[in-house]
Design brief:
This protein is of the alpha/beta class. It has one domain (2-82, 146-241): P-loop containing nucleotide triphosphate hydrolases (Rossmann fold, 3-Layer(aba) Sandwich). The chain contains nine helices and twelve strands. The radius of gyration is 18 Å and the shape is globular. The N and C termini lie far apart (39 Å). Bound molecules: adenosine-5'-triphosphate. Residues 14, 32, 34-40 line the site of adenosine-5'-triphosphate. Residues 1-227 form the ABC transporter domain.
Length: 242
């Protein structure tokens, strides 16, 4: 079943006629050069960017879904988050329950454990490092237990161990019958963890499919202007500029 499908999704020249879908159980990686339109696409799906065309959430037009229901179904982790207030980690994670109007202690504890932030619940978020804060904001989204989790570069500020931890947990999250769509610059990690990839180039969908279908020399040359060494058969996969 398609959790998300877009038809002729456009935002001026920033996103042009993008047709894609997110299937239940899958993790879909959005890749492309700086400025290719990855955040713009995620912002449209998250309901914070006006667009032309159609987006459907589990078959229902997104525009016809009440804001609260939409927030229950779709969780969004922006590229960077910060709090204007000195909130505790527990308070930040609890914000993820706002769409439900509860403080489901089990959901909050599970989210904190998954993002490995459970030891900091009583600390102030502004007294954590950048990468530590990023995991707390991820826990906030997880606490809402959305059917579709959208994440804009969720591993950009994380160390090697936490990149692996977060990508594994997002994959498990998708495999539980939900869906995850994330933008990611590290193509080797994208190939290793994503079921399918969607390659954007200058706002257009250049390719969508399995990592082997999308990560070809020709596509990477067109999208990134690099001649890349690609070895998807090695474990882990290797994609680096020559
Ligand atoms: N608020 C905005 N108003 C107008 N144009 C914008 C706005 N935000 C981004 N853009 C433009 O839209 C295009 C796509 O930007 P977007 O942020 O979606 O790219 P991206 O693929 O996420 O890039 P990056 O990898 O650098 O995060 C870029 O040309 C950018 O300059």
């Amino acid at each position: 079943m398609d959790l998300i499908d877009t038809r002729h999704l456009s935002v001026g020249q920033r996103l042009v006629n993008v047709n894609l879908n997110l299937v239940a159980g899958e993790m879909l990686g959005i890749i492309g050069a700086n400025g290719a339109g990855k955040s713009t696409l995620l912002h449209c799906l998250a309901g914070i960017q006006p667009y032309q065309g159609n987006i459907r959430l589990a078959g229902t037009p997104l525009a016809s879904i009440a804001e609260r229901q939409r927030a229950q179904q779709l969780g969004f982790l922006p590229q960077s988050s910060h709090s204007a207030w000195a909130l505790s980690v527990r308070d930040v994670i609890s914000l993820g329950r706002l769409p439900w109007g509860d403080t489901n202690a089990e959901a909050i504890a599970q989210a904190a454990a998954a993002a490995q932030v459970q030891d900091w619940l009583d600390r102030q978020i502004d007294q954590l490092s950048g990468g530590q804060q990023a995991r707390v904001w991820l826990a906030r989204v997880l606490a809402g237990q959305p059917r579709v989790l959208l994440a804009d570069e969720p591993v950009a500020s994380l160390d090697l161990f936490q990149q692996q931890n977060v990508l594994r947990l997002l994959r498990r999250y998708a495999q539980s019958g939900r869906g995850v769509m994330l933008s990611i610059h590290d193509l080797s990690l994208a190939a290793r963890y994503c079921d399918r990839l969607c390659l954007l180039h200058e706002g257009q969908l250049l390719a969508i499919g399995t990592p082997a279908e999308v990560l070809t020399g020709q596509h990477l040359q067109q999208a990134f202007q690099v001649d890349a060494h690609i070895d998807l058969d090695s474990d882990p996969p290797i994609i680096i500029p020559r």
